[in-house]
Amino acid sequence: MLTTMDTVSLTAPLDSAVLRRAATPLTVTVDDGTRARVDRSRQLFHDLLHGGGEGGGSNGDRAAGGGRESRIYGATTGFGALVGYAGRADEADQCDNTLAHLGAGQGPDLPLEITRAALLLRTRSLAQGLSGVSAEVVERLTAMFATTFTPAVPRYGSVGASGDLIPLAYATQALRGRGHAYVDDRRLPAAEALTAAGLRPLVLDGRDALALVNGTSVTSAATALAHDTLRAAHRALAGLTCLLADLLGCDPGFLDEDLLRAYGHPGAAHVGARMRHTLTGVTPSGTRPLQEPYSIRCAPQLLGAAEDALRYVDGVVAADLGGVSDNPLFFPGDVGAGENAGTGAAAKVVHGGNFFGQPAAFAADLLACVTAQLGNLAERQLDLLVDPARNGGLPPMLATTPGQQHGLQGVQLATTALVAEIRRAAAPAGMQSLPTNLHNQDVVPFGTQAALRSYDMAELLRLLCGSLALGLRQAAHVGARRPTAPRCGGLLDLLVETIPAVERDRPLDADVRAAARLLVTTDLP
Q: In 3D, which of 369, 241, 235 has the Cα closest to residue 309?
């Protein structure tokens, strides 16, 4: 079964649109091939744990043969810096041993769409059959997505190094009926929330519990959602820049194809082509300066550099959404089918670092830089638009009766505050490593902080785009010409349909949000 907006197959690639769709109930399917992969991995785990298998170990693990048992992190050992000590002998106790000590998170709950997206990503990682979990865990996770059940997960606590241990522990505990969770946006004790959603508590052993927490799913999900929002804002800013240029009567020569080809950067050529398409049919007024301010003239170079950066993040997000984030991993070897078939590969358990969220940390920090500069562009374009010295003679603040009415003055003040907040948050997180866990985690990526910060910043950029759109709509109301490019005219018409003109002063916060929603949910002309 293919992935659609209402049904997700765990065999199909995930993307950010599917992660966002997981915020509301949807059907997640598990096919026979997925069950078989998970069962093979689970059987290998048991064989290695109890000495009944035939495969070899790795990284110092003893072979699972001849009645010998393998050392398997988290199944026979303590956790983190305490790996040198034996874990609990009873499997149910070992589950508690995994999760209880991680209940140290703080702060407000994560946005519910991040939590559900993270759990969908975690489910797909487990379903790839390398984690040694039981098929029932995968099945029960998929059942959750058909409901509105969402674990309550505190924001602070992960360093993104051994996976998002603390936030994923809260999510797992909620699925066991411990802690708190949301159903239909109501926060309840988790046991009550499970009952209300028609779900049974998860029953886990130590391997299941560790596999649920030992991955970077929160980091990867937040990065993917931030990237998706930023992609939409980037497209919107290209369209709004075209509308600004048309309303003011600018000459489109700054988008010349030969000019941008000579620049040598593929993103600029790509963005320039899209903007030329939007401005097809434009007629310059002939009254503008020979060279426009950089916020117009250099827009294809700025937006193009952002495009090149976003393409890098495209690759990181795709890899994170398709890969396996866990430790240890169980490779069944040559089992009749799959990539190892016919290779003679031995079954093995491998201990390593596939829970280390450095790729997403770098990507999220890059998203923060892009967000900051796109925010600068939107704010500077609005500033140009409300300034009668540069807006072609439109009234100051785009007020209908300056002094008796104040137009976009409050909105511009707010955009200044939003840009300041974005700049404050833009400092890189992924290079601020601090050793922890008795130096077991002696270098950490802080990908979770980078990702959640970029998610927040992307939401602020949406509001900046909405503010600029509101200004463009008001400019048309107070005397700017009708756009001469048909696609720019179509964009203006969408804004006019969504946002009333500002005649008398009124609160414009809801109008900014409405414009922002329009820009990121509509295929712009």
A: 369
Which pLDDT band, with edges at 50, 70 and 90, does 214 fall under?
A: very high
In the chain, the N- to C-terminal Cα span, in Å, equals 33
Separation of CA 419 from chain center: 21
CA dihedral 116, 122, 127, 129 (to 10 degrees): -170
Of 235, 380, 229, 226, residue with least CA distance to 307: 235
What residues does 154 pair with on adjacent strands?
109
Supply φ then ψ for residue 248, to 5 degrees: -85, -15
d(CA 357, CA 318): 14
Question: Tokens 């991993």 sit at which residue?
Answer: 329
Report residue 291: phi and psi, to 5°: -125, 125
Q: Which of 73, 170, 182, 455 is catalytic?
A: 73
pLDDT at 385 exceeding the cut of 90? yes
Tokens at 321, concatenated: 């959404």
Is 73 among the catalytic positions? yes
| Alpha-carbon span 335 to 447, nearest angstrom | 36
The secondary element (H helix, E strand) that includes residue 52 is: none
Instruction: Single out the residue of 501, 479, 476 nearest to residue 405, CA to CA.
Output: 501
Nearest alpha-carbon partner for 228 in 113, 329, 326, 140: 113
Asked if residues 54 and 84 have their Cβ atoms less than 8 Å apart, the reply is no
pLDDT of residue 48 exceeding 70, the answer is: yes
Q: Output the pLDDT for position 1.
A: 37
Identify the CA nearest to 161 among candidates 487, 441, 411: 441
> Strand (E) positions, 219-338?
329-331
Task: Return the C-alpha torsion angle 157, 195, 34, 340, nearest 10.
Answer: 40
434: Cα within 13 Å, side-chain hemisphere:
6
- C-beta of residue 378 within 8 angstroms of C-beta of residue 369: no
What's the residue count for the chain?
A: 525
Phi-psi region of 132 (alpha: psi -120 to 50; beta: other; left: phi over 0): left
Band of pLDDT at residue 438, cut at 50, 70 and 90: low
Quote the strand ranges of 198-340, DSSP E. Answer: 329-331
Asked if residue 139 has pLDDT above 80, the reply is yes
Between CA 39 and CA 147, with CA 171 as vertex, the angle to 5 degrees is 80
Q: Are the C-beta atoms of residues 243 and 515 closer than 8 Å to each other?
A: no
